[in-house]
Amino acid sequence: MTETKKVAYADLESIIGQEIGVSDWHVIDQDRVNLFADATGDHQWIHVDVERATKEMGGPIAHGFLTLSLLPMLSSEVLQITGVSRGINYGSDKVRFTNMVRVGSKVRLRMKNISVTEKSGGKQMINESTVEIEGHERPALVAQQISVVYG
């Protein structure tokens, strides 16, 4: 179990340019992929038809947007900001799906802070979020994750 970095709202600027941390590994199983397919209506065979995907491409793969949707959960394992009243997801920039996540793979988040700036009475944070796949050099996802937190 990784240790979550705790930073006070007033001290957020102290993490600019630093790697914040790395989450635990999480298995991406077929149940999660199927639930995501049901939630989004994306039932493309490469994700949900295990028999065909195994025959044609060595096994099913997770949706890229499933990987992206894991960022809030994984981020909460990496960073806890104390002294906040709320936080919002402001979006993502430069999202790239750089490798397939095969069902059964383990993924984790490596997060680095790029900036902290004043915004709308709070602080906007931009974090470089890299979702790594266990045993693979090339990550599954690289994105700039943008959030705004309020003290």
What do these coordinates show?
With 151 residues, the protein is an alpha+beta fold. 25% of the residues lie in helices and 41% in strands. The protein has helices at residues 30-40, 45-48, 50-57, 64-69, 71-78; strands spanning 5-8, 19-22, 26-27, 79-82, 86-97, 106-119, 122-133, 141-150. Strands 2, 3, 5, 6, 7 and 8 form a six-stranded antiparallel sheet that branches. Strands 1-4 form a two-stranded parallel sheet. The protein starts with a strand and ends with a strand. The relative contact order is 0.24.
Please report which band the strand proportion falls in: under 5%, 5-15%, 15-25%, 25-35%, 35-45% or over 45%: 35-45%
Helix content: 10-25%
Number of E-type strands: 8
- What's the number of helices? 5
For the termini, the CA-CA separation is: 28 Å
Question: From the helix content, strand content and strand pairing, which structural class follows?
Answer: alpha+beta
Poorly predicted residue ranges: none
How would you sum up the global shape?
Answer: elongated
Described by strand count, sense and barrel closure, the largest sheet is:
6 strands, antiparallel
SSE string, helices as H and strands as E = EEEHHHHHEEEEE
- Using only C-alpha atoms, the radius of gyration works out to 17 Å
Average pLDDT for all residues = 97
